[in-house]
Amino acid sequence: MLGILQAGTWSAGDESALVDLKEEAGRRDHRGTLLPARPESDVAAEQVAEESACMSNTPGGGALVLGVADDGTLIGTSLGVDWLRHRVYEITDRALTIEVREIHLGGVRLLIITAPEAIEPIRVRNRIKWRLDDNCVEVDLATWHAKRMIRTHFDWSAQPSHVPADQVRASAVEAARQFLRDSGETNAVDLARQPTPELLRRLNVVTGDGYLTNAGVLAFVGRGDPALDYIRRDVPGGDSRQRVHKGARGLLEEIADVFTNINAYNSIKHIRTGAVVGQVRDLPEQAVREAVVNGLAHREWGLAAPTTIEHIGKTLRVTSPGGFFGGVNSQNIITHPSQSRNRALTELLAALRVAEREGVGVDRMVREMIRVGHRAPDISEIDGPFVRASLVGDATDEAWIGWLASIDPPETREDLNALLLLRQVVDQGWFDVVTAAPLLQLNQAETQGAIQRLNIATLRNGPLINLVPGVPDDAPFAWSLAPAARDALQRLDRTFGTDRPAPSRERIAKSYSRARGRVSTTELAGIVGASPTNVGGVLKSLERQGDLKPSRATRRGPGFYYVPVED
To answer: Which among 156, 278, 298, 346 is least surrounded, fewest beta carbons within 10 Å?
Structure first.
């Protein structure tokens, strides 16, 4: 943080959930003119109290740097350290004691105000706020306490309830048995035959003194209010065709009801892959189940709102209360070790085979969507906080499905990393380790291994990907589709009438040059499967547009290439 301040200026990117930089409130008049600093200012104290309380309510606490103007200039502050600490203590009803330290940079006095993590929520003007990314947002008491429980690794779902095990609903127990039978697994089918007391015991939802755990109450008794709210519409904004929003029953009953309704509107198409006729739904059933179950297993059950499922056309959007948990975010959700704020509930749903085994749900969701040619699910945290998973089912891509079916070895078609790389190379024209690593959510060494595995895969005995030619010896490798593999996909596209949007040569040249710092006619030609003499005009056009510039003025000779123009 001091390094940022010593630079003399800052940008919005320097702020985070734990650090905020502020100009002292009340330092400017209505024209924006800077006023003389004062040792005491109630306006400034109110500002510091609100910002510090927000930091304190945020897991980990945080620090506020006071004396930085909105334009990034260090303008300083004259507020007294002891006076400010005491005034904040009064404003927060004696709930918050901040640490205030003054520093001098370039002759400017700044205050670094540290707010410790709160044990109980701290209110200012009767409102609780915490940091979401680099903003303070209002949060309700239940959500704050839920986050506090997360910080202490408290699993509410594993705690004993006051509901006797003999209060389970017969229909919920039957739903559990049906999930087990539907799996077809010998052990699961055997478990489904057990008497109810034994079934509950083996599912680990009964305490030693005969009470259900909270997970058991949710699954087999219910919480009264509906846990799920499913809405079916044919088009965005259209009338509701179906709704499932019925409480006073177990979660397993609600899940089974929702699955039945989703399947009713998730159309099946018969496709031929070689000599085999298969069935493909608009949205892969496994991906749908994982999206729904993740929206229940990992949600915050301390909040009353249901997990909502909007099924609009060929899109399914699952929104669940509570933000990401345990270090998971949208950039690492595929590869981050499994984390759940409701471990016991997650294990119960896995034991019942409601979804895949714990820890691989998101992997399967992504894989199943890509296998049939759809985009990878978008899983992100939105204000609330909520987590939203969106599965968009475009038209069934029979050409893509048939193309994947021709790849050997067969396990390549089941490999999520291989599928993500193939989607990238078809949609963007090329990839290398640096660009592929964030896509796979792996480090570069792991990404290199994934690329090497794909590199030995074949399509009709020919290579699937090739090294891009013309790459300098001291530069990292780049890969593109092998010509035969590209031709095979194009033939299938013509057969099935697939209008596959292909990246233009201009777009490939721009993305390649910006990522790798250069592009030559040999490199571009190798990516698009053309002769170098046929792509020279593309690079010259990009030079005229101001996107590229030549590496040498003559534009001739061995090793000549273009470099990107900095924005």
So the answer is: 278
**Sequence-ordered list of residues with C-beta below 8 angstroms from that of 370, at least 6 positions apart, any chain:** 376, 416, 419, 420, 423
What does the block give as tokens for 27? Answer: 């330092």
- Scanning 184-284, the segments in alpha helix (DSSP H) are 186-192, 196-202, 214-220, 251-265
CB-based contact 143:201 (threshold 8 Å): no
d(CA 91, CA 94): 7
CB contact set of 489 (below 8 Å; sequence gap of 6+): 399, 400, 403, 426, 481, 500
Query: pLDDT for 341-391, tens place per residue?
Result: 788 999 999 999 997 665 557 889 999 999 999 999 999 988 877 899 999
| CA separation, residue 428 to residues 238, 450, 508, 511 (Å) | 35, 18, 7, 8
User: CA-to-CA distance for 245 and 230, rounded, in angstroms?
Assistant: 7
216 touches 173 (CB < 8 A)? no
| Residue-by-residue DSSP string for 270-307 | EEEETTEEEEEESS-HHHHHHHHHHHHHTS-TTS-PPE
Question: Rounded to whole angstroms, how far apart are CA atoms 18 and 60?
Answer: 8
Region 159-166: mean pLDDT is: 94
Phi and psi angles of residue 112, each rounded to the nearest 5 degrees, phi first: -105, 115
Report the distance separating Cα 84 and Cα 22, nearest Å: 15
State residue 26 phi and psi, 5-degree precision: 85, 5
* Residue 100 DSSP SS3: strand
Structure tokens at 267: 């159309």
Contacts within 8 Å (CB) and 24+ apart, 514-519: 514/564, 515/432, 515/434, 515/435, 516/432, 516/475, 516/478, 517/563, 517/564, 518/551, 518/561, 518/562, 518/563, 518/564, 519/548, 519/561, 519/562
Confidence band of 16 (pLDDT split at 50, 70, 90): low
Within 8 A by CB and 6+ apart from 290, the residues are 355, 356, 361, 362, 364, 365
Write out 119-132 in H/E/C secondary structure.
Answer: CCCCEECCEEEEEE
Per-residue pLDDT, 152: 62
Which pLDDT does position 2 carry in this prediction? 40
Per the CB < 8 A criterion, the answer to whether 301 and 312 are in contact is no
Distance CA(20)–CA(109), nearest Å, equals: 17
For 268, phi then psi, to 5°, come to: -105, 135
Distances in Å between the alpha carbon of 55 and those of 5, 46, 69, 140, 381? 20, 14, 20, 16, 20
Backbone angles phi, psi at 521, to 5 degrees: -65, -35
Query: In this prediction, what percent of the chain has a pLDDT beyond 90?
Result: 69
239: Cβ–Cβ under 8 A, 6 or more apart, which residues?
A: 233
* Angle between the N-to-C axes of helices 81-91 and 42-57, in degrees from 0 to 180, rounded to the nearest 10: 70
List the structure tokens of 229.
């709210």
CA atoms lying within 13 Å on the CB side of residue 95: 21
SS3 136: strand
β-bridge pairing 562-564 and 458-459: unpaired
**Which of these, 401, 377, 395, 398, lies nearest to 387 by C-alpha position?**
377
Whole-number pLDDT of residue 7 = 42
Q: For residue range 508-548, list pLDDT tens digits in order.
A: 999 999 999 999 999 999 999 999 999 999 999 999 999 99
Express each pLDDT in 96-106 by its tens digit.
Answer: 888 899 999 88
